[in-house]
Amino acid sequence: MALLSITEARTRILAQFKPVASETIPLVKSANRILAMDIVAADDLPLFDNSSMDGFALRAADSSNAAPASPLTLNVVADIPAGSHPTISLAPGEAARIMTGAQLPAGADAVVPVEDTDFNNRDAGSTAPTQIQIAKPLKSGENVRPRGMDVHAGDIVLHKGHRINPQMAGILAMLGFSNIEVHKRPRVALLSSGDELLEVNAPLESGKIRDSNSYMLAALIESTNAEVLRLGVAKDTRDSVKNLIEQAIQQNVDLIISSAGVSVGAFDYVKDVVESNGTLDFWRVNMRPGKPVAFGNYKNIPFIGLPGNPVSAFVGFEVFVRDTIGRLSGISDGSRRTVRVRCAEEILSDGRESYLRAVIHEEDGVNVAKLTGHQGSGNLLSLVQADALLIIPAGVKCVPAGQEVSAWLL
Ligand code: AMP
Ligand code: MG
User: Fold this and answer.
1) Could you identify which of 39, 105, 154, 377 might form a hypothetical disulfide with 158, taking C-beta atoms 3.0 to 4.6 angstroms apart as the criterion?
2) pLDDT, tens only, 216-254
3) For 245-272, what is each residue's pLDDT tens digit?
4) How many CA atoms within 13 Å lie on the side-chain side of 73?
């Protein structure tokens, strides 16, 4: 099988996925879920003309000649707390005390803040004065938040396919959506494979290592807000690998992710097991780290086999799995943001598309990237220290110091 480029491999993978079904859930549970409906406003926002200050509502035209030498005196005819419905209509020469967020009375078109009047009593419980004086003119609309300023009824405020963030939860509440339709959380099964792997709390044995991938990958899957089903560790035998993958099949998952066992080692059974129970589309990609990445399906359930080396597993996840889960989740625009960074040092590569661990700091307004520690695919510490992955394109063998490359922020 030929070595695929990352782009080709991603295209082949993503083409196999469509969003999972949707469900209706309470707004209070909606953070981080993916909208499965366009949100059309039934109301204007703000709902009504209201004051943005504690002060006095007035007719701006009354105030045109107000000046320190000739202050304007207005009769205060009403007191309007937030939440009340003003029934009065201001006549010329009249004002109404009004609180922030309270509805403007008819006739009023501006609010003078209390601190710009001669009325000094701002204590809670204070009664409104009978008159106020102001010493400068107000413009029509000043300190008023007009109805419909942000949203008009009928506007599409949020589009399906977007992840609900806290701000969106707020506007959904403003618009009265107590229940919303979101995509279900995809179910992702996760397994490790390797005779060398021990549970984290097991006593160390000579020649064995702790299974770190399943913790890192579970955390990565959770960071997409998918549900993760941790299946544990398969031994390096066909039966053990098959038994574990079968468990995933029993649990109705949307995707199976494994780490290790997809290379060319004598004990790498994972891709064999997938191939003999489904199809293997590819198992190598022209990238570094992480060349052994397998994609196929096991009994019609999509399967992505990530490499065993921890940094390769991480990079493989970011390059292939994050957007795949995004597609399953119903995200409409999963494209990742890259930033341009200047390399502090010369970077040598081997011509494969490479993802290198780096820290980024700002120097004279420019983002400068420095590689962190050992860049081997087993050196997890340098990934822990990194805050970005530098992307060295395929075909490039040397990036001179001072040149810019693209980077993903971690
Ligand atoms: P393999 O793909 O099975 O050849 O494994 C490649 C490398 O990754 C080896 O050094 C393995 O010990 C290591 N490895 C495999 N699985 C894990 C895991 N779950 N956690 C940490 N390292 C692993
Ligand atoms: Mg192995």
Assistant:
1) 39
2) 999 999 999 999 999 999 999 999 999 999 999 999 999
3) 999 999 999 999 999 999 989 989 999 9
4) 3
**Cα-to-centroid distance, 195 and ligand 1 (Å):** 9
Compute how many other C-beta atoms are within 10 angstroms of the C-beta atom of residue 264: 9
Q: pLDDT tens for residues 44-56?
A: 999 999 999 999 9
End-to-end CA distance of the chain: 32
| Cα–Cα distance, 280 to 294 (Å, whole number) | 7
Cα(95)–Cα(57) distance, integer angstroms: 5
From 213, 216, 262, 264, mutation site for ligand 1 pocket: most ligand atoms within 8 A of C-beta: 213
Ligand 1 center to 311 CA (angstroms): 10
Answer whether 0.85 is exceeded by the pTM.
yes
The residue whose two tokens read 């493989």 is 316
DSSP secondary structure of 253-322: -SEEEEES--SSSTT--HHHHHHHTEEEEES-BSEES----EEEEETTEEEEEE-SSHHHHHHHIIIIIH
